[in-house]
């Protein structure tokens, strides 16, 4: 900021000031700080009782923690305040959900993809994820589990950490999982803050050996919040070989020199600086910028500052030209709440090479760095710097790899780790010893095939849907689809006998899940040019399918009908009654052997009218079948001659409700 204000200034005639507010790692304090800063965005009619000011608040840099950033972004969502964070990585922080939020740090989607790739290259196939029970930890753990499983890595458990007591449930679970690993050698990924990482190291360091369990058998990867702060290993026997990822390995030498000079001046009492003095008082023998190194988030902070200032400069130039002051047009726009700095920031393009050489860090200018944001508010990668650097602690952190353009480049020859007995060696294993229930593959997808020259496909809901929509739940003992599947094969055999055509049959259990049904079909059928999928023992070309019978549910039939329409293959449902499928323009090859819900709704209305009922309740299942039937009934009841008034409808889940019947009305 001082550099931008030197000489004629980044915006001639305009001085950029700032307030620094400490949120003390508290979402509540961060929210309070944000609210104290909001007044500048409020329209004039809300500020009639406040003292006028000639200053303009142009935005917020931060918060640094995802938990606080989520709270502040939600709080200020409707006030049109630009928020640019240099460190909040939670994947939920998108511009779609929080329209005023931007960031100069990569999203956790990138980080967890990279960590999964790291485990893959280390040949770790049996891992545990531990996380703090906050938004950053919970969201990151969920992402990492999905990314790991995509690469064939078994995540045996995901452990939330409430406390770091050596007798906690977390510690007991960790010991149990070590016993399941081959050679008591287990990979643990920890997603939490720097302080949490230090607490984890302290807890593991104090673990006493038990039977064949030794703390050195735990091999840890720390997420980027821990960064490269090696003080977390101070005075600890444990920690050698730990991996940590950092978002930037760039050292801005001119910035570092300024920071070191300021630190020396404060230490020598020739300059005052409250925060640096607080550090000196707490750690009198330590250097704030030791080993010629600064915090990895400093480059991202500088990007955030210039993005915000450039966004204001764009608006200032549009409204004031070269006035050299805050012109009336700009101030009027601010008073009316029409100064849209959010859009200006979202579309900003900071080009360091075009700046006065005395303003930006030299590295950014000479390497032509550009700051701009994508549609979700993440900073675009426009230079060749790694998105992440992988470090390993070997008495100090050394870089062993980097992640760029979605590829991890790992130098395994630099990696050193301790064996379970504590000896320094090379890369250690992390595999399941015998039977690990979460690592059992699901096997082949259950498909029953009756060979033939041409095929009829049947889709049935023999099992219920699991919480994971790709998997199957318990047997649907209240449905007759198992019997329907038997009848399907019987009918195809009869059809072959009657016609003399060798019809084959394929039956699939969709487990009452449209996601599962479409996933299986898109994987199972192939064109002649496609490679076959190893998930299936045999596959059929889609050109041999002459018709489809199914599905049971309307929610499944809709995507299935869409799937087969381009192939001009008829789909005939024995149960789907949604009115959506009456649309012959979008579903020209769909037929059914049950009436549309439009007929059902009409009959239900006629029954009510025959009973002379004029006020009725309406309960429906919240899926396509229930929702569309509900809307069809309401539409008919709303006609002038129906004389039926429908009370407020109540939607319930397809599974057992936890509501008492008295709560429905």
Automatic annotation (TrEMBL):
Q: Which residues form the Receptor ligand binding region domain?
A: 3-330, 495-653
Gene Ontology molecular-function annotations: G protein-coupled receptor activity
- This protein's UniProt keywords: Glycoprotein, Membrane, Receptor, Transmembrane, Transmembrane helix
Query: Where found in the cell?
Result: Membrane
Which SUPFAM superfamilies does this one have? Periplasmic binding protein-like I
**Topology with respect to the bilayer:** Multi-pass membrane protein
Q: Which InterPro entries match?
A: ANF_lig-bd_rcpt (IPR001828), GPCR_3 (IPR000337), mGluR (IPR050726), Peripla_BP_I (IPR028082)
Provide the Gene Ontology terms for cellular component: membrane
Q: What is this protein called?
A: Receptor ligand binding region domain-containing protein
Specify the species.
Biomphalaria glabrata
Gene name as annotated: 106056127
């Amino acid at each position: 900021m001082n550099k931008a204000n030197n000489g004629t200034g980044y915006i001639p005639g305009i001085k950029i000031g700032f307030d620094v507010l400490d949120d003390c790692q508290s979402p509540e304090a961060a929210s309070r700080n944000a609210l104290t800063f909001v007044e500048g965005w409020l329209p004039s009619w809300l500020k009639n009782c406040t003292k006028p000011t000639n200053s303009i608040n142009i935005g917020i840099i931060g918060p640094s923690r995802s938990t606080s950033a989520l709270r502040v972004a939600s709080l200020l969502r409707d006030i049109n305040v630009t928020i640019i964070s240099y460190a909040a990585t939670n994947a939920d922080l998108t511009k779609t959900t929080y329209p005023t939020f931007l960031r100069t740090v990569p999203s956790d989607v990138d980080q967890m993809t990279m960590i999964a790739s790291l485990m893959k290259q280390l040949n770790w196939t049996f891992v545990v994820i531990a996380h703090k029970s906050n938004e950053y930890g919970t969201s990151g753990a969920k992402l990492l589990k999905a990314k790991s499983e995509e690469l064939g890595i078994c995540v045996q458990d995901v452990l939330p950490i409430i406390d770091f007591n050596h007798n906690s449930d977390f510690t007991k679970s960790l010991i149990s999982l070590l016993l399941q690993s081959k050679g008591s050698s287990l990979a643990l990924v920890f997603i939490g803050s720097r302080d949490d990482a230090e607490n984890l190291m302290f807890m593991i360091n104090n673990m006493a050996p038990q039977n064949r369990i030794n703390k050195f058998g735990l091999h840890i990867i720390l997420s980027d919040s821990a960064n490269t702060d090696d003080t977390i290993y101070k005075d600890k026997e444990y920690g050698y070989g730990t991996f940590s990822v950092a978002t930037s390995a760039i050292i801005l030498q001119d910035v570092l020199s300024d920071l070191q000079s300021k630190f020396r001046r404060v230490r020598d009492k020739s300059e005052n600086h409250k925060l640096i003095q607080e550090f000196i008082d707490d750690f009198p023998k330590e250097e704030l910028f030791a080993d010629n190194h600064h915090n990895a988030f400093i480059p991202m902070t500088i990007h955030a500052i210039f993005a915000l200032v450039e966004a204001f400069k764009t608006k200032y130039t549009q409204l004031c030209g070269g006035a050299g002051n805050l012109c009336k047009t700009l101030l009027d726009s601010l008073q009316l709440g029409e100064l849209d700095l959010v859009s200006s920031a979202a579309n900003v393009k900071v080009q360091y090479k075009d700046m006065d050489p005395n303003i930006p860090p030299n590295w950014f200018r000479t390497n032509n760095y550009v700051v701009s944001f994508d549609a979700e508010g993440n900073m675009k990668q426009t230079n060749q710097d790694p998105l992440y650097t992988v470090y390993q602690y070997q008495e100090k952190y050394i870089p062993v790899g980097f992640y760029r353009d979605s590829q991890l480049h790992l130098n395994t020859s630099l990696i050193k780790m301790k064996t379970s007995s504590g000896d320094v060696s090379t890369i250690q294993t992390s595999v399941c010893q015998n039977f690990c229930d979460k690592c059992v593959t699901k096997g082949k997808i259950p498909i029953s095939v009756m060979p033939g020259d041409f095929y009829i496909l049947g889709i049935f809901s023999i099992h219920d849907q699991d919480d994971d929509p790709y998997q199957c739940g318990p047997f649907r003992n209240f449905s007759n689809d198992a019997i329907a599947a038997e009848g399907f094969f019987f009918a195809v055999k009869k059809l072959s006998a009657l016609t003399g055509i060798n019809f084959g049959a394929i039956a699939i259990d969709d487990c009452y899940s449209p996601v599962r049904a479409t996933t299986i079909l898109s994987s199972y059928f192939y064109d002649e040019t496609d490679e076959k999928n190893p998930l299936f023992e045999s596959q059929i070309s889609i050109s041999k399918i002459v018709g489809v019978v199914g599905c049971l549910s309307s929610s499944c039939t809709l995507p299935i009908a869409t799937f087969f329409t381009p192939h001009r293959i008829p789909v005939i449902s024995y149960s789907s009654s949604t009115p959506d499928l009456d649309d012959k323009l979008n579903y020209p090859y769909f037929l059914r052997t049950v009436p549309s819900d439009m007929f059902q709704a009409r009959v239900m209305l006629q029954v009510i009218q025959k009973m002379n009922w004029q006020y009725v309740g309406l309960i429906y299942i919240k899926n396509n079948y229930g929702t569309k039937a509900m809307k069809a009934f309401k539409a008919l009841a709303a006609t002038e001659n129906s004389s039926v008034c429908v009370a407020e409808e109540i939607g319930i889940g397809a599974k057992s409700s936890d509501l008492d019947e008295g709560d429905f009305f």
